[in-house]
Structure formats: structure tokens, C-alpha cells
Specification:
The structure holds three protein chains of three kinds. Chain A is α/β, with parallel strands linked by helices. Chain A has two domains: about 25-155 and about 295-380, 3-Layer(aba) Sandwich (Rossmann fold), CATH 3.40.50; about 160-295 and about 380-420, Rossmann fold (3-Layer(aba) Sandwich), CATH 3.40.50. Helices cover about 45% and strands about 20% of the residues of chain A. In chain A, the strands form three sheets. In chain A, strands 7-6-8-9-10-14-15 form a seven-stranded mixed β-sheet, with helices on both faces. Chain A has a five-stranded parallel β-sheet with strand order 2-1-3-4-5, with helices on both faces. In chain A, helix 2 crosses helix 12 and helix 13 (about 320-340) crosses helix 14. Chain A is globular, with a radius of gyration of 22 Å. Chain C has twelve helices and two strands, in the order αααααββααααααα. Classes of the chains: A alpha/beta, B mainly alpha, C mainly alpha. Chains in contact: A-B, A-C, B-C.
């Protein structure tokens, strides 16, 4: 009796874990990893998933804008496997290995969390699987090590803070005091650290009044807002995102926080679409690059914006843009490698070689993989101020900063570059 | 009285792992290694559970072990897997020795919550520490065995065998311990502490010892998990990590020293199946599976394998 | 502008929020002796229900002043939809088990409820800023505070007072006391203990839902809203003593003030100051500040 029970359980488990049937070679299997649950799902995970769905659908139908006109990847239809990025790093590494070894994906595109990116990169090298990080911000990935199979087609978070500092200096040339409210984890700590360092270079006499570092997802910021109001700084910097960002706006706006000081929200673009009318005029919004309202009016953006809105009835945010250009960039490299390989399906090594140092155009503009030995992208960054026009939120006083002004040079660490006064 | 077959079972399991491991796919070996690492932590928790204590903050020692292993690699360039586990165990054991003076006085839910508070304090300290990467953590050097780095295809297998060796040896040692007078004291303490004191032994001392042993196991488990995953971050000290360990322990039951490892393996399999089969609702799948297991197997998983004599 | 004044005001506002959030947890533990992890789920359910019901109410153009009543009603309705189901359907059969096993059961239920919320409301955030903005703001010490926060303080006082009155001055309260001290003897005396458990669980969860519902206008309601609350509520309840109403109040005030002080003077330690307080209290008063007497087996 017990033996039968044991056998039943064992076979159930074995059956569930049996690898998926091997796919024919006329399709390309891409594994996507992004947040499907938890607080990061709404601002990043789902917009990115939607963008992936849209782009893959369009590419498979051959409807991509030139030079992305070929069907799927090099003529092969794209098949997608999607995994939730929620859970501990141990879980993510386990699931990455499952993606590669059980699902046998041809490549992986994903990851928003810097912690996951750092953990996955060496595993990607070990498993020799082409992996493209589409969103995570830490510059450490290519500063701490070199990789052959790991790429990132989005700029690092350094760009956000440096761009913010430059915009602040342009808007208020004799800025004297700054303050910050950032989430107390790596992202928030690094963002504030970079901003503070950049401000000290651009305006050496600047004084930090207070740096608030509440717990991630704290949700209640009344005390912090009181401290900020009391600090009376010229500029307030915040790299808050999603729920925390919206809580900050909802709780700080009525208390006059944004009116008293120039408030810079480096990742603020995601709140634009949901909170629109609640954001006080004159708030400086960043979109982590030329995305969303700051995207150039090129034919890629026209295709993406129109199609995305038609399919999902909402605007794509910067996570959507980053995912779109991640897929397009790899497609270009894949097809280049395929051509060089005489039309046959290229290996991961060949695609990686083609992807290195590549420069391509997407809905956000030009993407150049100039840093990290040709694996790390740089782009221009854009900041602007909000203004309510006819009840809809628009951006004015938009300033664009070229890629080499806001990204460290290829051979320098971001922190050193800022400390050294942005000297190349 | 039936002969105690546990040492033989442990030996057989080790042989099975060594022999079958060469044919198992790499991802399965990875999951197996993690199961052994988590099983070590659960083994320690089981030890304390027998004495009626549940620690909601065992992740404290798991994390300390992991960071000790990582520090070995970062600052001393040491990457031998057994040295890492020993270092993890030693650091965790020392911390438990010190903290045990405070904690051994508490019982029931307060023991649990105080240990939770301590683990969250460690979490907070690590998050604040930017040198160690804050919440991003840092990567650990690839593991070596006695100075040799195995060939790429054999790494998972070697690590799995090393993990099995460590885990099963620990199980054997704990099994021996449970047959000593101090080990046998656990159910007595759970039942009636005052009588234990009347008998002339110190319950507090026994608990302190068990607490240190559990921490040593957790530290070794943490080091093993860290070196397998290749990455360490403060979330290893978060209360959700402790929660997973408690789940595995209760799931496994206190019947046998092998049970925690079986429980860890089943939990790992359910977890990954939930992600695979229902990526949009994996929490619900996981919760339902766990609820079902608790409801239908109240004595833990081990009751599946133990033949009950007719009453 | 005097920082001390704003420290106190911020502290009291945060304490009020903590108190409301933690009250249900301590009530359920006090009566049923279970550590209820689904507390966080009911908080989230209350927040989502409050946000969507009130959003619909305001969208239809009904009087905004009544939106506060809608928030309360939403919390009540959503609790009545889920709590009895949870208690009668699953928990009822588990009371005989070990308290850690019950905790794990509530944890499994919490996981299930999290995805249930996701299935019903999706992952997009919900906002209802109107009730928050409607009452305007007032000034203390040169800083402006939204008047809405006073509602939370008022709510805390009302809930605490009501519960205290219920406990001490009504027949139900006295019977509850009997059930707390000895369920077996209470059963023998003819008290329907099962019914009391159902009512307590529902009422405790309703308190959590009310906390979530009234917090909803101040934040954006996103998935994972309940997780943070669980740990905070636990800390407050443990500091005050599990099952003690004045304890929860004192615990909330302590944590609120300490956090407020650290935010204004030492922002860097804010992250773990609450656990530090918890550890300190437990180190000197192992059972919390006020705790019920428990018999010991000899």
C-alpha cells in the first residue's frame, strides 16, 4: 500500500519535470524573465511583458519596421517562455537554470532587479547562454567582471543621476542646498550617492540638508516629508518608483513638498500615466533615458507607440521601451550572424560576437554598446518638467544630454568618473 | 524493538546520489544540492522542534554562514567548498554561542519572535553596508574541491556529491547525538521543564547546546547554498527565508533525521513546478500544495514511509 | 520651526496607523491563540475593496463627503465575503493542532489570498486621492499636514475605545474573557466557543480591512501591500504583549515615536529601529509589556 503511494508520487514528480519536447529548428525560443507578481509587476514587469508580446507578435508577422522586417529572428518564428522574476536570488538562479537546461531556450532576455542581474551573469557565462539584461541599473555588472555571453542594451542608472544633476544645475545655476529621499536598498543608495557626488562636482559649495532613506515599500512617508519640508532645500532628489513614488506624490503634493523645492524624480515617468493630475507643475521627471514622453519621433517609435496603444489601450512606459529595444537589438545581431554563417542558424557565440559593439536604432533612438568591452549600452538622457495642459500631463523645458556627457567612458568605473569631475 | 535502520538508509541514499547523479540532468543536480543545503538548516530546526522550540529567525545563521563563505572568497581568495562550509558553520556557531545566553531563557512564541527580531537586525545591518553591496550583495568565487576546479560538465555533479556527503554526515552525527542523554532530553523539555530541573539537569544548558548545534548546521547550509548559487545577498536573512525553512521542517516532521532533506527536496520541487506551470499564479499553487500537505499529512512527510503497526 | 513638535505630530500619526493595523492581530491572538498571517491579506483586501468601491462611487458623481462611509462599508463587505469562508472552511478543523502548524496554515492561506487578490483586481495600482484631498490641511509649527491624518487618529481612538468598552462592559465581553482563559471549561459551561471563534476571527479581520481601507486614499494600492504590514503589526503586538489591548496601544505609540525621532535625527537607522526596540523590550520583559497571566504545567 505504502509502496504504491510512494511510486505514484515519484512518477508524478518525474512526469511534471520531464523536459519539453525538442523544438524544430525553424523557430527561436526566447526566455523572458520579468516581474509578474508583487509591487514591481505594475510599473516594470507587466509593461515589459506587454511590450515583449507586442514586439514578438509583430516580428512573427513580418510587420517590424525596416531593418527589422524579416520574420521573427532570421526567418524563424519566435516562441516565448515567460518566468516570474519574483522570489529570492536562489529561486531566480534555479529558474534561470531551468529555462536554459529544461526549456532549452536559445537565449534569455530579462531581469529588472540588479541583485538578480549580478547573480545571473556568471551563471549565463557558465551555461554559455546569450543573456540580455533589459532594465537593471547597477553599473557593477560590467565593472566587476567581463563577460562573453552577457549583454545589457539599456544604459546604467549612473546616467539618471548625472543627468538629473546636470538638469538641476541648468535650471538653478546657483543651487545651494540639496536633500534626498530614496529607498534604503542598493538602488536608492547608489542613486543618491551618484547624485550627491555629481552635484558636488557641478556645484562644489552645495550642502546636503538631509538624506532620508526609508525602508523599501514603507508606504507611509509623513515623517520623512516633514523632515524634508523642515530641511528647506533648493532641490529634492528621489529615485522612488511605483507604489512608493505614488505614495510620495499623494502624500507630499498636498503638503506643498514639490512647490517648496525643485523635486527631481529620476524614475518618475511611470507615475505620469497613472497619477497625471496629482503631480504638481514644475516637478522634474526622468524616464531613465529617451523613453516614454521623451522618445524621439522616429519611425520606430511611431510603429511602437501606435501599435502598443492599440493593443493594450494604455501608454508604454520606459520598461516597455527598454524591452522593445532589447528584442530588436538582439534580432539585428542574430541576423548579421546568420548571414555570416551562410544562412544557417547561428550559434550563441556567433550572435554574441555580432552583438558586441553594435549600434542600432529603436523606439528610444540610438543605442550604442560602447562600454563594458562592447557589452554595455549607452544612450542620451532626457529630463523635463511637468505641466498640466488641458487636464493632461505634458512635459516642458525638455533638455537632452548626449550619451558621452552622462555615461562614463569605456575604460572607467562610474564612481571614479564622477569623482574625477567627469574627465574622460 | 525494531533495529534502527537509519545509518544504513543514510548510506544507501548517499550511494544512490553518487551513482545516479552522473545521469541526472544538470538542473536536477542543482535543485538536489539546494535541497541538501536547505535540509541542513531544517535538520537543525528539527532538533530544536523536538524540544518544543521554533526559531522564526534561523535565516540569521544561514545568512551568516553564506557571508562567511563569501568573505573567505572575497578577502582570502579561498574557494574550497568544505572549507567554506566549515567557516560558515564556525561563524554561525560562535554567534549562536553568544546569542544563546539571551535566547535560551525564552520559550514558545517569544523565542520565535525574538529570533525573528535578531535576524531582521542582521538584515538591516547588511542592507546599510554598502561595502558588501547592500541589497545587491556580491558574487562568490566558483567552488573548488580540495584545490581542484572540476571540468565544466562535472561541476554540478561534484558539488551535489559534496553536498550529499556533508548533509548525510550531518544527519548521521545528529542521529548519534539524539541517542545521547543530552539529545534524549529534548522531548522531556518540551513536555515538562520543571521536572527536568528536578532530575538534576539544566534545561537551559541543554537548549543552549541544541541552539548552537542548529546554528552550526544552518551556517554550513548557508555556505553550501551560497557557493552553489554563486551569489550572496541580505535577503538570506529576511523573515520570508526563515519562513521557508520552518515550512520545510514542519512538512518533514520530526520522525527521522533523513526527513528534513526529503522535505527540502519536495519543497524545492513544488516551488519550481509552481513557477513552471502557473507563472502568473505560482503563489496560489504553492499555498494550495502546502495546505494540502499539512492537512493530509499531519505527521509530516515521514509518515508516508513509516509503516504503522496495528494498534 | 520646532522639530520637536513635528516629531511628536508625525509620531502620533504613525502610531495611530500602526495601532489600527495591529489591533486585529492582537485580538485574534488573544482569543484564539493563533498567530494569524492572513492579517496582511485582509489589510490588502480592505485597501483594494476600499479603493475600487470608492472609486466607483466617486466616478458616478455621488457626494464625496459620503466616501468615508463607503470606505468603511467596503471593508465590512469584503471581510464578510472572505473571513467566514476562511474560518469555517479551513481553520475550524485545525484548532487542535500545534500553534506553529496553525501559523503555517495561515501562511499558506496568505499565499492563496495574495493571488486571489491579483486575479480579482489585477496588478495595476488603484488610486482614490479625493477623500484625502477633500478635507484640506492644517498647520502645526509651520508645516502643513493633511487633515485626513486626523481621521486615522480619530479612528484609532474610536476603535480602541469601542473594543475596550466591549471587553469590560458588555456580556459578550465577559463571555469572551471566559473563552480566552479556558475554552474547554467554557464549552462545558454551555458557551458556544465555535461561534465566538468565528465572530472574533471575522471581527479581527474586519479591523485589518478597515485599516487597509482607510489607508488606501493616502497610497497607491499595489500587490504586496499586505506583506509589510504583517511584520510591523507583529512587532507592535509583541512589544505590547500578545493579546493585550492597552499593550498594542502602548507598543504603537512607542514604535511610532521612536521611528519619528530616528527619521528626523538619524535617518540611517530607521531601517531596523523597530526590530531593535522589539529585541530590547523582549530582552527585559520577555512576554512583552502587558501580558496575560498563563498557567504553567508542573
Amino acid at each position: 500500500m505504502h509502496t504504491i503511494r510512494k511510486l505514484a508520487i515519484c512518477s508524478l514528480v518525474a512526469a511534471a519535470l520531464a523536459p519539453a519536447a525538442a523544438m524544430g529548428r525553424d523557430s527561436v525560443k526566447i526566455g523572458f524573465v520579468t516581474f509578474l507578481s508583487g509591487p514591481a509587476a505594475a510599473p516594470f514587469g507587466v509593461p515589459a511583458k506587454n511590450a515583449a508580446e507586442f514586439v514578438v507578435e509583430q516580428l512573427n508577422a513580418g510587420k517590424g519596421p525596416a531593418p527589422y522586417r524579416k520574420k521573427g529572428y532570421g526567418g524563424g518564428s519566435i516562441e516565448t517562455v515567460i518566468i516570474d522574476e519574483a522570489g529570492s536570488t536562489t529561486t531566480q538562479v534555479t529558474e534561470y537554470r531551468n529555462l536554459v537546461q529544461r526549456h532549452n531556450v536559445d537565449l534569455v532576455i530579462g531581469y529588472v532587479s540588479s541583485g538578480n542581474c549580478l547573480a545571473i551573469a556568471p551563471v549565463a557565462e557558465e551555461l554559455k547562454k546569450l543573456t540580455n539584461f533589459f532594465d537593471c541599473g547597477t553599473p557593477r555588472i560590467f565593472e566587476d567582471a567581463s563577460y562573453r555571453y552577457v549583454f545589457r542594451t539599456s544604459p546604467t542608472a549612473t546616467m539618471d543621476s548625472v543627468g538629473a544633476a546636470l538638469y538641476v544645475k541648468d535650471a538653478r545655476p546657483n543651487v545651494k542646498t540639496i536633500a534626498g529621499i530614496n529607498q534604503n536598498y542598493a538602488w536608492g543608495q547608489d542613486s543618491w550617492g551618484d547624485f550627491e557626488a555629481a552635484m558636488k562636482v557641478l556645484a562644489p559649495q552645495v550642502e546636503v540638508r538631509t538624506s532620508q532613506m526609508p525602508k523599501l515599500f514603507a508606504g507611509q512617508y509623513n515623517a520623512e516629508i516633514s523632515a524634508l519640508l523642515g530641511a528647506n532645500a533648493d532641490v529634492i532628489h528621489s529615485s522612488f518608483w511605483d507604489g512608493d513614488l505614488e505614495a510620495l506624490i499623494l502624500q507630499g503634493g498636498p503638503r506643498g513638498l514639490m512647490k517648496k523645492s525643485i523635486t527631481v524624480l529620476t524614475a518618475g515617468e511611470t507615475a505620469m500615466h497613472k497619477l497625471g493630475a496629482q503631480i504638481p507643475d514644475g516637478t522634474v521627471l526622468g524616464a531613465r533615458g529617451p523613453f516614454g514622453p521623451y522618445a524621439p519621433d522616429n519611425r520606430y517609435n511611431q510603429w511602437f507607440l501606435k501599435g502598443y496603444m492599440a493593443k493594450f489601450s494604455e501608454q508604454p512606459n520606459y520598461a516597455s521601451y527598454q524591452m522593445a529595444q532589447a528584442i530588436l537589438g538582439v534580432k539585428l545581431a542574430w541576423e548579421k550572424a546568420q548571414e555570416a554563417n551562410g544562412g544557417k542558424t547561428p550559434s550563441n557565440e556567433q550572435v554574441a560576437a555580432a552583438l558586441e559593439n553594435i549600434s542600432f536604432e529603436g523606439p528610444g533612438g540610438t543605442v550604442k554598446l560602447a562600454n563594458g568591452k562592447g557589452h554595455q549600452a549607452v544612450m542620451e538622457t532626457v529630463y523635463g518638467e511637468t505641466k498640466l495642459v488641458n487636464g493632461k500631463l505634458a512635459v516642458v523645458n525638455v533638455k537632452r544630454y548626449p550619451a558621452d556627457q552622462v555615461n562614463p567612458p569605456a575604460n572607467m568605473k562610474a564612481a571614479d568618473w564622477i569623482k574625477g569631475g567627469f574627465k574622460k | 524493538m525494531k533495529r534502527d535502520r537509519t545509518p544504513e538508509m543514510i548510506g544507501i541514499i548517499f550511494l544512490v546520489v553518487v551513482l545516479s547523479g552522473a545521469w541526472l540532468p544538470q538542473w536536477a543536480l542543482f535543485i538536489l544540492t539546494i535541497a541538501f543545503a536547505h535540509g541542513l538548516v531544517a535538520l537543525g530546526l528539527m532538533l530544536m522542534l523536538r524540544a518544543g522550540l521554533v526559531s522564526f529567525g534561523q535565516a540569521l545563521y544561514y545568512c551568516l554562514g553564506a557571508y562567511a563563505a563569501g568573505a573567505l572568497g572575497k578577502f582570502l581568495g579561498m574557494s574550497d567548498i568544505f572549507v567554506q562550509m566549515l567557516a560558515g558553520a564556525a561563524v554561525a556557531g560562535f554567534a549562536a554561542f553568544v546569542l544563546g545566553f539571551l535566547l535560551a531563557k525564552y520559550r514558545g512564541i517569544f523565542f520565535g519572535l525574538l529570533s525573528l527580531a535578531l535576524s531582521m537586525i542582521l538584515y538591516g545591518l547588511l542592507v546599510k553596508n554598502e561595502a558588501l553591496g547592500s541589497t545587491d550583495g556580491f558574487n562568490i568565487l566558483p567552488s573548488t574541491l580540495f584545490g581542484i576546479r572540476p571540468a565544466a560538465d562535472w561541476v554540478r555533479y561534484c558539488v551535489a556529491v559534496a553536498a550529499a556527503f556533508a548533509g548525510l554526515s550531518a544527519a548521521l552525527l545528529v542521529h548519534r547525538y539524539l541517542n545521547t542523554p543530552l539529545g534524549r532530553l529534548a522531548p522531556a523539555i518540551k513536555d515538562n521543564e520543571i521536572r527536568v530541573e528536578y532530575m538534576g539537569t539544566s534545561a537551559r544548558h541543554a537548549i543552549h547546546v541544541k541552539y548552537v548545534i542548529a546554528a552550526v548546521l544552518a551556517g554550513a547550509g548557508g555556505a553550501l547554498a551560497a557557493t552553489n548559487v554563486g551569489h550572496i545577498d541580505p535577503e538570506m536573512a529576511y523573515w520570508t527565508t526563515s519562513g521557508e525553512f520552518i515550512f520545510i521542517t514542519i512538512l518533514a516532521g520530526t520522525g527521522n533525521v533523513i526527513a528534513p532533506f526529503a522535505g527540502a527536496l519536495i519543497f524545492g520541487v513544488i516551488h519550481t513546478m509552481a513557477y513552471d506551470l502557473s507563472p502568473n499564479t505560482w503563489q496560489m499553487s504553492l499555498g494550495t500544495a502546502l495546505l494540502a500537505l499539512i492537512v493530509f499529512l499531519p505527521e509530516g512527510l515521514w509518515s508516508l514511509f513509516v509503516r504503522r503497526k496495528a494498534a | 520651526m520646532d522639530p520637536i513638535l513635528s516629531v511628536i505630530v508625525d509620531g502620533i500619526m504613525y502610531s495611530a496607523w500602526l495601532f489600527i493595523a495591529a489591533l486585529g492581530l492582537t485580538l485574534i491572538y488573544g482569543v484564539m491563540k493563533i498567530v494569524n498571517v492572513t492579517h496582511g491579506s485582509f489589510y490588502a483586501l480592505g485597501a483594494y475593496a476600499g479603493a475600487s468601491f470608492t472609486g466607483a462611487w466617486l466616478a458616478r458623481g455621488y457626494p464625496p463627503m459620503l466616501s468615508y462611509a463607503v470606505l468603511a462599508a467596503a471593508a465590512v463587505v469584503i471581510t464578510l465575503a472572505f473571513a467566514p469562508l476562511v474560518e469555517r472552511g479551513i481553520l475550524r478543523f485545525m484548532y487542535a493542532k500545534d500553534e506553529v502548524v496553525i501559523l503555517l496554515i495561515t501562511y499558506a492561506l496568505f499565499l492563496i489570498l495574495e493571488d486571489t487578490i491579483k486575479l480579482i483586481w489585477g496588478v495595476n495600482p488603484y488610486f482614490i486621492a479625493q477623500p484625502y484631498a477633500l478635507l484640506g490641511s492644517f498647520e502645526v509649527g509651520g508645516l502643513s499636514y493633511p487633515t485626513y491624518n486626523l481621521i486615522l487618529v480619530g479612528l484609532a481612538l474610536v476603535m480602541g475605545g469601542a473594543l475596550a468598552w466591549l471587553q469590560h462592559s458588555t456580556r459578550v465581553g465577559k463571555l469572551l474573557l471566559a473563552v480566552i482563559h479556558d475554552p474547554e471549561v467554557s464549552r462545558a459551561m454551555g458557551i458556544n466557543v465555535g461561534k465566538y471563534y468565528l465572530v472574533t476571527f471575522t471581527f479581527g479581520s474586519m479591523l485589518a480591512a478597515l485599516a487597509g481601507s482607510f489607508t488606501a486614499p493616502t497610497v497607491s494600492v499595489v500587490p504586496g501591500l499586505g506583506v509589510e504590514v504583517i511584520v510591523l503589526s507583529f512587532a507592535v503586538v509583541v512589544i505590547g504583549g500578545l493579546g493585550s489591548l492597552p499593550g498594542a496601544a502602548l507598543g504603537a505609540v512607542m514604535v511610532g515615536l521612536v521611528r519619528s525621532i530616528s527619521v528626523h535625527y538619524m535617518p540611517q537607522v530607521e531601517l531596523f529601529v523597530i526590530y531593535f526596540v522589539m529585541a530590547m523590550v523582549l530582552a527585559f520583559r520577555p512576554r512583552g509589556l502587558f501580558s496575560l497571566a498563563e498557567p504553567r504545567k508542573i
